[in-house]
Every structure is written in C-alpha cells, then in structure tokens.
Amino acid sequence: MPAKITLAPPRLWAASRRHSRLRFSKPALARCLQLLDSRPGPHPPPGELSLAFLTDSALAQLHDQFLADPAPTDVITFPGDPAAGLAGEICLSVDRALAESTRRRCSFARELTLYLVHGWLHLAGLDDRTPAARRAMRRAERRLLAAIAQARAWPDFRLRS
Prior knowledge:
Blueprint: E1 13-17, E2 22-23, H1 26-38, E3 48-54, H2 56-67, E4 75-79, E5 86-93, H3 94-104, H4 108-123, H5 131-150, E6 158-159
Parallel strand pairs: 1-3, 3-5
Antiparallel strand pairs: 2-6, 4-5
C-alpha cells in the first residue's frame, strides 16, 4: 500500500512532447510534480513550470547554443521569471534516458524521472559543479526518488514502438 502523502496544490505546468515516440499520461506526471512540490526542502520558484521532452540532437543544439558545449547531455534547466509567473524550464533528453536506462539496467521511466528530479533541483538552486555540491545533489535526488517510489507516483513514461 502506498504511503499516505498530502499533496501540494497543483502547480501550473506545461509539457512539450518533441520526441515522437514518448508517451505519458498527464495525470501521472501531475501527481509526480505535486509530490515534488509537497516535499520539504528547496523548491523551484513559484510559477508555471515548462517541461520539454526532446531528442538527443535537439538538446545538444540547446547545450551548444546556451552553454557553448555541443556534446549531448541529459537535462538542461533554464531559470524562469517569478515576477512574470514563470518558474523555469526543464529540457530533458528522451534518447539519453533510453540509452542510460539500458546501460544501468533500470526502467526507462525511472531514468527519465531522475532527469526530471535533477532539473527540478537545479531550478530549486542546487548545482553539481563541485564534488561537494554533486554529493548534495545526489543525496537530494535519492531522497526525492524514494518519496516518489513510496507514494507510487512515478510518471508512466514509455516509448511507442
């Protein structure tokens, strides 16, 4: 039986599915985001959260354009403007999640959710530029993933054949 967790009021969010094979239910993703908002600890600023699910090449282009690094990556976050009601944007590579889930022998949904949590934590102010900051980020990721698992609030990310 899942743990009883009181969820925060729903955050406004928008998901842009720019990967032709990705499928998920909006209610399952909304439940996961509500759970993240209801947990103690740092949170992204208030406002609408944008999620962009991209191909490796599309995210690599953003990586190059905004961070001057053309290498593929798993997730990039862009801070929002709370005064304009925008919390920020999390851009996730669906292709990278598939490759890493295969390599790490975990589910695709778990890997993509890890990227979502990682981006969430970046918008909340955590970074992973130093060894100490990276350890703090990994601890926060584990804590949030455990809460998602305990509440059975996994988004149902899947790929169409």
